[in-house]
Specification:
Two copies of one chain form a homodimer. By secondary structure, chain A is an all-alpha fold. Chain A folds into two domains: 54 residues, Homeodomain-like (Arc Repressor Mutant, subunit A, Orthogonal Bundle); 141 residues, Tetracycline Repressor, domain 2, CATH 1.10.357. Chain A has ten helices and no strands. The longest helix of chain A has 28 residues. The termini of chain A are far apart. The interface between A and B is medium-sized, with 34 and 34 residues. Chain A binds a DNA duplex through helix 3.
Chain lengths: 213, 213
DNA sequence: GTCTATAGAACGATAGAC
DNA sequence: GTCTATCGTTCTATAGAC
């Protein structure tokens, strides 16, 4: 820790600060509506200075999309490989997924909504990473269903339904609301694991005995 | 039926055709990235001609958002007031909701993603309509839970989870895929009603006896 | 590494002929 | 109702001084 922990984009190295400010603006106004002058103004430089760090506006977008896609893969997928029971791993994963999505909402929303502005090969690269993340979740659910931990007719469909459900949180959650994000994340992962995936509460995956209510 | 049924935007009255082409372009490229010249080119006129029908680019966006929000309210909410059991009404509603969302994907996506480009009062008007639609679904689930048709701990949360889940279909469904939209809509409404909302399969809402498996 | 200055194109919107 | 012509602005991106 050679520096004080930076909590604002302005305290980051300039290159990272530019990306963070750009992601925030793209999130708030849409990629097409935001000009390089606006990004530069928020960063505190002239527009031409941005081109010292990034080749073009689409390059900015590309770095944002690529970076956040890799972050989700690196930070969250390992949870699914832990030693805990399927239902517990899934619930942990979903809580972290929901919380990370909110923390990085400017980046992840940009990656999911503005890919169309990238060149085809760059868009395909990012889309591939996002798809790999989704498929890992689907594969985990398939394994859980095969092991009997999840009771679900169509694991692939349930997986995508589950992700769409939790991904919606960012569109309506507001910090000023009645519930904290942690409460929402816990309630949602419960809904997902016990209702949508049909996991049984408590007990090992192959237990047939206990049934509350 | 005084005219042949128009299936392309070009066969609609010009004003409607402009809106449909604009919605498609906004959907494909984002509001900020699409220029009035591009819209005009697709319609087959010069940019200045668009101003005979609409006052500005934001007016185009406003008409799109307002129109589709009203359509969903008028066409789908009546289903929830039918005489059928709660689970059946909900399943019907969700199937129709999923199918209408796909049919009108250019419009509804624009309404949900590009509201930020509208003037505050116009954005608030549209957001109010979309929120009213969502709240009607939540209220229906609350009634169903109170009547015992749905077994769900938090009806409000379940309602928003359910809508986020079905609203995700447009982001991954492709007509060339393995499953038809009708199959997906049926599978999804089953997941929503019987898993997420905990409705019991068949039998009247207050029956406590039958339990499959 | 940031600046001024600007090229060259595209933007939203308007005026006025037909 | 559609056109041509154009106004004034803004856009991405570059050149070159410091």
């Amino acid at each position: 820790m050679t520096d004080a922990t930076p909590s604002e984009a302005d305290e980051l190295p300039r290159e990272a600060a530019i990306l963070d400010h750009a992601a925030r603006l793209f999130y708030e106004r849409g990629y097409g509506t935001v000009g390089m002058r606006t990004i530069a103004e928020v960063v505190g430089v002239r527009a031409s200075s941005l081109y010292h760090y990034f080749a073009s506006k689409t390059d900015l977008l590309y770095q944002i999309c690529l970076g956040v896609a890799r972050d989700f893969i690196d930070e969250l997928l390992p949870i699914l490989s832990g030693p805990e029971p399927y239902a517990e791993r899934m619930a942990d994963f979903l809580r972290r997924h929901i919380e990370l999505r909110w923390q990085r909402r400017h980046w992840i929303s940009t990656a999911q909504q503005e890919l169309r502005a990238l060149a085809p090969d760059q868009a395909a690269e990012v889309a591939g990473l996002l798809r790999a993340y989704q498929r890992s979740v689907q594969a985990f659910i398939e394994q859980g269903a095969a092991s009997g931990a999840f009771q679900v007719a169509d694991p692939r469909l349930a997986g995508i339904a589950l992700l769409d459900m939790v991904n919606g949180v960012n569109s309506w959650y507001r910090p000023a609301g009645a519930r904290s994000l942690e409460e929402i994340a816990t309630a949602y992962s419960g809904l997902a694991v016990y209702n949508l995936l049909g996991a049984r509460r408590a007990g090992p995956p192959d237990a047939e005995s206990s049934r509350a209510s």
